[in-house]
Amino acid sequence: MSRPPSAFKASPFAQLAELIAGLTPAMAPIDLSVGEPRHGVPAFVGPALQAALAGFGRYPATRGTDEFHAAAAAWLDRRFGLGGRLDPDRGVIVLNGSREGLFSAALEARRRFPEKTAPAILLPNPFYAVYAAGAEVAGAEAVAVSGDGDLPDLDKLAPEVLQRTIAVYYASPTNPQGAVASLERWQSVIRLARRHGFMIFADECYSEIHRGTPPAGALEAAVAMGGGFERVVAFNSLSKRSNLPGLRVGFAAGDPDFIAGWGAARNVYSPQVPGPAQAVAISAFADEVHVAENRRLYDEKFAAAERILAGRFGYRTPAGGFFLWLDVGPAGGADAARRLWAEAGVKVVPGAFLSVPDADGLNPGGRYIRIAMVETLERTEEALTRLVGVLA
Ligand SMILES: Cc1ncc(COP(=O)(O)O)c(C=O)c1O
After folding, report:
1. pLDDT tens digit string along 288-341?
2. Is the C-beta atom of 174 inside 6 A of ligand 1?
3. Which residues of 318-330 are buried (b: 16+ CB within 10 A; e: fewer)?
4. CA-CA distances (angstroms) from residue 184 to 180, 205, 217, 225, 257?
5. Is ligand 1 within 6 A of the CB of residue 97?
6. Which residues contact 50 (CB under 8 A, 6 or more apart)?
7. End-to-end CA distance of the chain, in Å?
8. Is 124 in the pocket of ligand 1 (CB under 6 A)?
């Protein structure tokens, strides 16, 4: 039997570098390829770091400080209305950015379900690249599931696949489309995971970047179902919410049994998070003013995009996240990305670099480009105007 092509490809940015190698941009470059928030480091970070400097003199405990657990749990409780059900001690784990946690969670899912031979891990399609890396390194088949309104439609999967599934990566808001799962959608994913006995890795790092309606979360859905967090682990991060991608602080929260086993394994193999970085994160959890300002800046840029792009490329303002996902037609995203770089100096990611072909052989990202709205308003407007000039 031939194996399906691996979903664990080179980084989309390495693929992009290869795609545009040798091209000289005709205009001053504007890089909208990487989803790196650039609205600036919040003012409280310096003093918080200064006050915690002595922590650099200690090895950090892998699981995180008690203060970090309490702050993360309290924030989740406020944000998602968890009614005090999340135990800060047993239900929260600090991560060196959510990316490494998303990766190592796949390894733990493999350890947790040894009875599932031929294990599968489900991913959305398109997907954040680390999901496929986690699946492959865990020895699981990566099954990429494309959408239903841009969210993966898990109900279409054969029971045989669901039975051997050990985990699903389910993101909301999604990267790249910015689609948001409703509370009911999360509940149907939870019911499916409990019925077939697999973990949900809910990737919620864009939860605070929305257009006014805060997205529901997986932990919130579990609470609304009246039970505990069994099978549900939500991942979040200070990177997008607080413009701190360089801090490398994320966290996972939920199923205490999973977290206990995973925490024990991580105590052997995972990167620790420096104490001062956790202290900065605690101060970030306590402030929502900078988060609201952040949203305002993205809103301004989406309003500009609506003005400049409306009626073209299937543009719609996404409910969450900070990406544009534009249909550039049958010539495809790779061709558009090359032309945009060469003719206009605008760097974007071809959709096909974020996705794999479906069973019908078609790549759902093939006709798309992804644009990260991370630049200033002026430079974003300039880039989108140049884009219309090249592609419209
Ligand atoms: C969908 C998604 N999940 C997770 C991450 C990881 O973010 P971090 O490791 O900074 O928490 C990113 C970063 O771009 C992302 O786009």
Report:
1. 999 999 999 999 999 999 999 989 999 999 999 999 999 999 999 999 999 999
2. no
3. bbbbbbbbbebee
4. 11, 20, 10, 10, 25
5. yes
6. none
7. 45
8. no
Other C-beta atoms lying within 10 Å of the C-beta of residue 189: 25
CA of 346 to the centre of ligand 1 (A): 23
Q: Is-cis flag, bond preceding 173, omega within 30?
A: yes
Closest CA to 152 of 113, 118, 192: 192
Tell me the two tokens of residue 236. 């979040």
Residue pair 325/178 in contact (Cβ under 8 Å)? The answer is yes
**For atom 6 of ligand 1, which residue has the closest CA?**
99
Pocket test for ligand 1, best of 201, 237, 270, 374 (most atoms within 8 A of CB): 237
Query: Is residue 378 classed exposed, middle or buried when 0-12, 13-18 and 19+ CB atoms within 10 A define those classes?
Result: exposed
Which residue in the block uniquely carries the two structure tokens 């600036």? Answer: 40
Which of 239, 370, 374 to probe ligand 1 with, by most ligand atoms within 8 A of CB?
239
Q: Ligand 1 centroid to 99 CA: how many Å?
A: 6
With a 6 Å cutoff on the Cβ, whether 131 touches ligand 1 is no
Q: Is the pLDDT assigned to residue 1 strictly greater than 50?
A: no
What is residue 10's DSSP assignment? S
Q: Which of 305, 297, 321, 377 is nearest to 42 (CA)?
A: 297
Note the pLDDT tens digit of each residue in 204-226. 999 999 999 999 999 999 999 99
Cβ–ligand 1 distance for 240 under 6 Å, the answer: no
Q: Which of 212, 205, 213 is nearest to 238 (CA)?
A: 205
Q: Verify whether ligand 1 is closer than 6 Å to residue 35 (CB atom).
A: yes
3-state secondary structure of 253: strand
> Which helix (H) or strand (E) is 323 found in, with range?
strand 323-327
Long-range (24+ apart) CB contacts under 8 A made by 51-54 are 51/279, 52/275, 52/276, 52/279, 52/280, 53/276
Looking from the CA of residue 245, the nearest atom of ligand 1 is 10
